[in-house]
Amino acid sequence: MKALISIIAVILFMLPVEAECAEKKVIRIGTDNTDLILQVGDKGRLYQSYLGPRLRHDEDLTRFDWYRHAASDGSVSRRGWEVYSASGNEEFFEPALAVTHADGNPTTYLYYVDSESKAVEGGTMTVINLKDDKYPVNVTLNYVAYPKENVIKTWSEISHSESKPVTLSAYASTMLYKSAGSYFLTEFSSDWAKEAQMSSQQLQFGKKVIDTKLGSRAAMHTHPFFEIGIDGPVKEHSGEVIMGTLGWTGNFRFIFEVDNVGNLRVIPGINPYASTYELKAGEIFTTPEFIFTVSYDGAAQGSRNLHDWARNYSLKDGMGSRLTLLNNWENTGFNFNQDVLAQLMKEAKDLGVDMFLLDDGWFGNKYPRKDDRAGLGDWEVTHDKLPGGIAALVDSARNAGVKFGIWIEPEMVNPKSELFEKHRDWVIMQPNRDTYYYRNQLVLDMSNPKVQDHVYGVVDDILTENPEVAYFKWDCNSPITNIYSPYCKDKQGQLYIDHVKGVYNVLKRIKAKYPDVPMMLCSGGGARCDYEALKYFTEFWCSDNTDPVERIYIQWGFSQFFPSKAMAAHVTSWNRNTSMKFRTDVASMCKLGFDIGLKEMTPDELAYCRQAVANWKALQPAVMDGDLYRLVSPYESNHAAVDYVSKDKNLAVLYAFDINPRFQEKLLPVKLQGLDPDKRYKVEEINLMPGRRSTLARNGEVLSGDYLMKVGLDAFTSSRNTSRVVKLTAME
To answer: What is the pLDDT of residue 3?
Structure first.
């Protein structure tokens, strides 16, 4: 009997597709370099038939069989790569969607209804409607393809009109499939002061899961982005690589599943851990945006794709300039007063930066913020420390000739605060268990609209009373602990999701009223680093670890997905065993700032930093808005090098670092990339200490872009923790 069933299955599988099948709709989601082809199957289900290099001829779009990737198990039914597979159907692997209907039935089958495409800023948006044939459940798949940048973003919308709420226990943003000989995952692990650490492994049969369950400060242990090398490990300058990132500032999950015949499916989305979501009739559950690019020239080109896309369409003020700054934290900590800050503002002007940033410790009266044990939640100026309030600080900054910015952590509360005394019901904490405190603080319940109003009011009150405040550093130092929401009551499965939505509600209100105020996204370092949050922030703080050697690795990792103008880097005293030049050169690869007392510097160091600030500002067309080329990896050598090239290729800058050269190590030239081979560039080493002359061979010469890219410059040395910055200017 089993043999007969197998024979029947094979015969059915080999039968020609019905005539109507040839007329089934093919949906092309394409960029200038990549095609994602979807196809309606013969029973009305939607399948992915192709993801890869763009097809040159339109007639080739119809040559795919939607079922050609089906598993080889002799199944009577044809099975392909369903675009948004739901639980309970004939698919044997991880689904994108799991719905328990009002009658308790856990199965869902989604069928194609219709689709349309329309022009949007920078590209084309395709909207595809699916529905269940037995239950009034609808899923809308959204895709926006950016042709020039070779980036696609996609998200899903789930709704229903059943008689009672349905329960969602899985709700991915999308599903992607790939068929190849092998797949290699590069992931980005993290911890405090150890962000964006890159490691790779081959994906084998089964599932590899990357997820986080921290709620807030969600990316503390792993970051919401990945790279997949196709038919080999991810390479910098060659090979096919899929690079994806999720726009979600909360719990996320990536599933990478290799099936029984060696196909890969990638499922990105919100982590459904402790988040069974009750969806009411008429309500729309919108998943986060998943943003991805497919590069055929290694991770380097994929990064440039994402950097261009981010500056043009996602990062707040992505095409604008950035402010250099002097922060007071590592100089003063909590110990400052109005006069000390006024003097530091003069130092900021003397340094040549644009702004002075006041960090933690300026607020609280009943429980003044003298350390991290008190005051969070009480956002009024400490009177005996700052008797003139923020207004006096703004005046002092204006008189010094710099702008004024301020630190806040409005989503958090110390138990030792007036806010906690008045509104314990605003705090995420257990009603009947001992309380666990992370960094002596708790998380406010952002699912509560009253809490959202309070958090919005922190920013609104400051700017209403002090409209000249020019910048906010928005911190978030604690994950969610003691997980219980007084507001959600019997709907605790909503907390992790509605909390993040509440954060977005606040940020949308702030951006609507104060669209031009830049803000830094910070979370105990780099634990918030996603493109949904960056719609509201001009930059993020990569790490509290400002040791320049460690920063080379951290910035290398983050640069895979984020442009340099989104990455804040400060010169500090973290590692006094490295030179001021080395520390400043490393920070200059990103959005430059300082967190150091000028009195710690020698006159030569101060003169050097002033010149480095001026150089950085002049190099913004390359560093902030140009193309990044990672040339020598710190993971693969004892050195590191990158170059930035302006879009018109008239300006470039090379950063070269000697981290820990071996004794009598052979030093290879650094071959630049991205230059115009036919242009001639003046080679000039900059960021030199006063009285020092360049020892760079070819310094001062005019060389062709072709020579610089094929022969290169002898930029490395055999000295530990040294650096070179080389400016290349195209000559007329």
So the answer is: 41
E-only strand ranges, 475-613: 519-521, 539-541, 567-571, 591-594
What are the angstrom distances between the C-alpha of 468 and each of 489, 509, 587? Answer: 41, 19, 27
d(CA 367, CA 46): 59
Burial class (CB in 10 A: 0-12, 13-18, 19+), 76: exposed
H or E element, residue 580: helix 580-587
The Cα-based distances of 270 to 337, 498, 641 in angstroms read 44, 12, 36
Task: Compute the chain's Rg from CA coordinates.
Answer: 27
What pLDDT sits at residue 454?
98
Report how far residue 523's alpha carbon sits from residue 544's, in angstroms, rounded to the nearest whole number.
9
Q: How far apart are CA 76 and CA 9, in angstroms?
A: 5
Task: With CA atoms as reference, report the closest residue to 508 among 526, 530, 527, 532.
Answer: 532
Under a CB-based contact definition with an 8 Å cutoff, are residues 582 and 721 in contact? yes
Residues in the chain with pLDDT values less than 70? 1-24, 68-78
DSSP sequence for 220-233 = SSB-SEEEEEESSS
Predicted confidence (pLDDT) per residue in 1-49, tens digit: 434 333 333 333 333 332 233 356 999 999 999 999 999 998 899 999 9
Measured CA to CA in angstroms, residue 180 lies from 184, 254, 289, 391, 531 at distances of 11, 20, 26, 62, 29
Q: Alpha carbon of 44 to those of 40, 66, 129, 270, 405: distances in Å?
A: 6, 11, 12, 28, 56
Distance CA 472, CA 410 (A): 11
Question: Among the residues of 222-351, which ranges form H helices?
Answer: 298-309, 329-332, 338-351
